[in-house]
Amino acid sequence: MFDFLDSGQYDVLGAFWVTVQLTLYSAVGSLIWGLMLAGMRVSPVPLMRAFGTSYVNIVRNTPLTLLVLGCSLGLDQTLGISLAGGTSKEIGFRLAILGLIAYTGTFVCEALRSGINTVPVGQAEAARALGLSFFQVLTLIVLPQAFRAVIAPLANVLIALTKNTTVAATIGVAEAALLMKEMLENESDALFAVFAGFAFGFVLLTLPTGLLLGWVAKRVAVKR
Amino acid sequence: MSGVSVTKDAQDAAPAADDLVVLSNVNKHFGALHVLQDIDLSIARGEVVVVIGPSGSGKSTLCRTINRLETIDSGTITVDGKELPSEGRELARLRADVGMVFQSFNLFAHKTVLQNVMLGQLKVRKTDSAAALEKAKSLLDRVGVGSQADKYPAQLSGGQQQRVAIARALAMDPKVMLFDEPTSALDPEMINEVLEVMQQLAREGMTMVVVTHEMGFARSAANRVVFMADGKIVEEAAPEQFFSNPRSDRAKDFLSKILHH
Ligand SMILES: Nc1ncnc2c1ncn2[C@@H]1O[C@H](COP(=O)(O)OP(=O)(O)OP(=O)(O)O)[C@@H](O)[C@H]1O
Ligand SMILES: [Mg+2]
């Protein structure tokens, strides 16, 4: 049933490796961008707050496919912004990551912000009263405490991100979903096996995220 | 504490050269509510001022405007001759010089007692860590919680937490200390241990603004009592005079209520 795997015709591992890379780069980027967005949304500067709020509300409510397509069509093909050039494959890969970061960052931001809201205001007030700067209050006092409340929602965001990388197929990035589509067309007699195989592949990728963050959550919970 | 004026009359004159905190014509609103109305108050170096008044009269708000945890709508506040900066680095620097102790302690929950007292020294004063450690330990000993240094705040009693909070504020070498009902959240048997620390501070010459209803403290440690009602300073007097012979009806009414507890 899985004999088409042996033919060497399909690079399944290679395709999943692209998925893993998309996920990792986007995850790191979204965590950073989400942290910055959350910083803006709680900042004392009205302009930053306004930017953070409108960005999150617009981008979060835009379909990811549109964002990734927008990066590809809008940035690359119309404006010629290819982020350091390279082959069309490399450009697609980088633009897909850009789209994923732009989108996932909003969810990271909101997860962080809900965590920030669980920290009593007195904590930040005491820190400000000591003379700590806004940035110090955020990074030394508020975020470390918000982090505990944020791990579970953040795991959800990262799992969703792993699956969302399949959208990169729409701009031709050779990740797992694109290969699956190709295999479904060619191996119509093994539809079920192909589906099951790819679904299993994604579960393999996402399970560790949940388990790892669950473990982290337990570790930080006992400290209090 | 010579040279400290405790009468209302001296207040009306131009602020003395030795005034550390001066509020003049301060107004603040919360929406339609006029919480602080034309507040004029000068606190001399080394003076201990107790602020007293009914709930909702604006005592906490007054206290919090002095380090700009609350902004004001009009008027000026100066600390050690400098007007409060509005934002940023300058404001942070000023706050470091104004210690604050809250009703609910607000110790950093994710840091140990020792780390709580060291944080401001390390991150704001940029003290080197050996010196910060030594100072934190000696302050914790001074407030009587030296043996709890490695515990987290949640593992301490309320009285102990509040004493740590005082040590945390003192670690910055503040010019003035603000206390907003520091004993109101404490069980009765813990109130005295905190008041004793505050009394000692007062004796050592710390400038203090204390919102409290502890009359024992006011009588023994305060130079002046400021009575607030409905966002205004209604009466200012020496503690003895205020408690035994209040001038305003509002103060008489208020005292009759709290004295019958
Ligand atoms: N952040 C806020 N927003 C709106 N109203 C507020 C805010 N903080 C305080 N107030 C209102 O301002 C008034 C004065 O409050 P404040 O806390 O200064 O009183 P207080 O004298 O400290 O009272 P208490 O003895 O109960 O602590 C109250 O009516 C209160 O409801
Ligand atoms: Mg109050």
From TrEMBL, chain A:
Highest taxon of the lineage: Bacteria
Pfam family, one: BPD_transp_1
UniProt subcellular location: Cell membrane
Gene3D superfamilies xrefs: MetI-like
Keyword Cell membrane: yes
Residue ranges occupied by any ABC transmembrane type-1 domain in the UniProt entry: 16-213
Cellular-component GO terms for this entry: ATP-binding cassette (ABC) transporter complex
Protein topology in the membrane: Multi-pass membrane protein
Coiled-coil ranges (or none): none
GO biological process: amino acid transport
SUPFAM superfamilies according to UniProt: MetI-like
Chief place where the protein resides: membrane
Keywords for the protein's UniProt record, in alphabetical order: Amino-acid transport, Cell membrane, Membrane, Transmembrane, Transmembrane helix, Transport
Any GO molecular function: transmembrane transporter activity
Residues that span the membrane, as ranges: 12-39, 64-85, 91-109, 129-147, 190-217
Family of the protein in this entry: Belongs to the binding-protein-dependent transport system permease family. HisMQ subfamily.
Protein name: Glutamate ABC transporter permease
UniProtKB/TrEMBL annotation, chain B:
Keywords, alphabetical: Amino-acid transport, ATP-binding, Cell membrane, Membrane, Nucleotide-binding, Transport
Entry GO CC: plasma membrane
Protein name: ABC-type polar-amino-acid transporter
Entries under PANTHER family matching the protein: AMINO ACID IMPORT ATP-BINDING PROTEIN, GLUTAMATE_ASPARTATE IMPORT ATP-BINDING PROTEIN GLTL
The ABC transporter domain, residue ranges: 21-255
Catalytic activity: a polar amino acid(out) + ATP + H2O = a polar amino acid(in) + ADP + phosphate + H(+)
Domain of life: Bacteria
Localisation: Cell membrane
EC number: 7.4.2.1
SMART domains in the record: AAA
Protein family per UniProt: Belongs to the ABC transporter superfamily.
Entries under InterPro entries matching the protein: AAA+_ATPase (IPR003593), ABC_ATPase_HisP-typ (IPR030679), ABC_transporter-like_ATP-bd (IPR003439), ABC_transporter-like_CS (IPR017871), MetN_ABC_transporter-like (IPR050086), P-loop_NTPase (IPR027417)
Topology relative to the membrane: Peripheral membrane protein
MF annotations from Gene Ontology: ATP binding; ATP hydrolysis activity; ATPase-coupled polar amino acid-transporter activity
A UniProt-annotated Pfam family: ABC_tran
Native source organism of the sequence: Streptomyces roseus
